[in-house]
Automatic annotation (TrEMBL):
<comment type="similarity">
    <text>Belongs to the TonB-dependent receptor family.</text>
</comment>
<feature type="domain" description="TonB-dependent receptor plug">
    <location>
        <begin position="54"/>
        <end position="163"/>
    </location>
</feature>
<keyword id="KW-0813">Transport</keyword>
<keyword id="KW-0812">Transmembrane</keyword>
<keyword id="KW-0472">Membrane</keyword>
<keyword id="KW-0410">Iron transport</keyword>
<keyword id="KW-0408">Iron</keyword>
<keyword id="KW-0732">Signal</keyword>
<dbReference type="InterPro" id="IPR036942">
    <property type="entry name" value="Beta-barrel_TonB_sf"/>
</dbReference>
<keyword id="KW-0406">Ion transport</keyword>
<feature type="signal peptide">
    <location>
        <begin position="1"/>
        <end position="30"/>
    </location>
</feature>
<protein>
    <submittedName>
        <fullName>Iron complex outermembrane recepter protein</fullName>
    </submittedName>
</protein>
<feature type="domain" description="TonB-dependent receptor-like beta-barrel">
    <location>
        <begin position="253"/>
        <end position="735"/>
    </location>
</feature>
<keyword id="KW-0798">TonB box</keyword>
<dbReference type="InterPro" id="IPR039426">
    <property type="entry name" value="TonB-dep_rcpt-like"/>
</dbReference>
<dbReference type="Pfam" id="PF00593">
    <property type="entry name" value="TonB_dep_Rec_b-barrel"/>
</dbReference>
<keyword id="KW-0998">Cell outer membrane</keyword>
Amino acid sequence: MKAMKRSTLATLINATLFSAVAGTSFSALAEEEQAKSNQLEVIQITARKRVENAQEVPVSVSALQGDNLNAYSSAGMDIRFMNAKIPSLSVESSFGRTFPRFYVRGLGNTDFDLNASQPVSLVVDEVVQENPILKGFPVFDIARIEVLRGPQGTLFGRNTPAGLVKFDTVKPSQEFDGYAALSYGSRGAVDFEGAVGGSVTDRLSTRISALWQEQEDYIDVKAPGFEQNDVLGGYSEQAVRLQFLYEGDDFTGLLNYHYRDLDGRPIAFRANLIEAGSNNINPLYDNDVVYHDAASRSTQQVETQGLSLKLEWDLPEHTVTSITAWESAEIYSRADVDGGYGANLDFVGYQGPGLIPFASETADVIPDHNQYTQELRLSSNFSGDYNYQVGLFLYEEDLTIESYSFDTFAYDQGLGQYGAQNGYAYQDQDTSAWAIFGSFDYTVSDDLKVTAGLRYSDDEKEFYAKRTKNPTPWNGSPDVLDDTANPSDSHVSWDLSATYKLTDDVNLFGRIANGFRAPSVQGRILFGDEVTVAESETTNSIEAGIKSDVLDGQGRVNATVFYYQMDDQQLTAVGGGANFNRLINTDKTTGYGFELDTEWVLTDELNATFNLSYNNTELEDDSLAVAVCAQCTVTDPTYMVNGANGPEARAILDGNSLPHAPEWIANATLRYTKELEGGEFFVYGDMSYRSEIDFFLYKSVEFEGEALFETGLRTGYLWFSGDNEYEVSAFVRNLFDEQVVIGGVDFNNNTGMLNEARFIGAEFKVKFF
């Protein structure tokens, strides 16, 4: 590992120095540079709510689009395909194709409750997707994905102290165009997506985009007495997006409606997947095998929809923008969480695999959810050295959550099946927030530009939780329990950044920023006995970097170094003694590292990218301790306390890294194209790597996830006929069928989840103009 670190740092230093020298050497060749046809394209982003060249923005930002985006999202992948595909970004989920959890520079949230807040925000078409179920909307007909690293509180507001993931869909235009793509692959998976758009009148255009994905159940149940083939792993998903764009002389209006319907299975939990005393995978398991006693009842049904209206007025020296939006989500997710069979059935005389202390079959439901947002901005368009944008943001969310526990072997007369309800809890949360913000740009000289931003945020919650039936009476808690919480806070976020043009091809930048996450509430008291509240967290971050175009425009090297300190970080103590989350605050968290983004035109036929990041995170709080796993080997220092069921161990967290925070992330792509008569042959390869991770706040042998290395390959032929472009291709994801435990459940046994197995498929695509 030390050799790897030295080599990586040397690569970064050499690349940075080379980019500066090369940029200086070749800047005099501007005319020849423009004449070349094999240069890298200019990447336009909207990281600061206006269209800018990514190379000139004083923010550590990466964009995913074009061939990279198409290849990564092959095989009907959900949003988790982004994991380790961008420096300092990881994505995981314990729900499967919904409820993704994002981590940037090691900062994220492992909370699995349906009101969990995250320090990484997701914004789609300029509308925040706050509830975790909204974040799982399928990725299709996307123009660009941007990942902004570091606090983004000034322009994007609440819950962005770690960063922001931003999706921009393809918008309607007056030009008629569209595409259709159909693929078939492993496990009977069918994936169709398409879009068509064009003018309705000379002022009005429209675009409709659609997705349909299906995969057959392929996971077999091998629990004695419950044997059944092809029970889990399948899904059927449909989504649609309809947009109308009106373009007047000095006014535009964009209406966006989107809808998603998912009927599938939750992620497969596997009891004692991890061998005790190690983090090896139990040889009883393959990717298509479980040992559940409640698999037949496992289901996940999600329905989300939203409507937004963006209005924009162009005045002589200003632009006024209004974005009004509504989002809604519903989910019913029921799973065999213990992942095994026969718990507590002494009269049957069996259980497994391994020890199953107690059965856990639960369901979590959002029957009602509504989110309303309103943003109003005024942006100047002065021709001089000074410009600004100021705005107002309003946010309202109403959320109801229900949680159920089931007795696996009790018969439900009403439903006519086993799995009778034996526990019920209810949560209701109303959130109100508002903010005013401003960002101010000043051109000091031809080479130096500075930006300052300020935002005042006010956030408050009203929360109520009640349990009317206790599924675990042996823990001494009462059947009926209710509690409330009403946290509120306000905060001033800020940032200051500068860009200095060293040469025509090399920009240096620096940025200091402050971010804020409002108080959070955790009240899933189905198995717990208290509502916990985490106070606000704040982040101070400093970063500096270089953005350079090199080799006469045929290379691009961007590098950033950063340091941050987060005060009162909100953490989730997952599991421990019960299927329950507790929110805590740590005194201080520090992080530092670097990010490297590069692109290369190697030859007329060969293009490549290479990206790398290093993140070191550390908890600094000598009084912070949490409950630990039931059966694993804890490596942190521990001490004992008196719990409800006797002595319980507590792990001291001081000095630990954050959960799901890999130190190293690397990815690379290579595209080869060869022009043939009438068309083009191509081969596209990619790889991604993330180093070891801890699943929980404490460290243990079993719940340290091994490094994950995945590769993909796509090859095909592209040709034109008439006005259409056609493509036929074959692809494979996870080429070497790397199998790694990617998450765990610690309250019962050494339960874990596996990454996606190898997927092979073929696709036919047509673009029409």
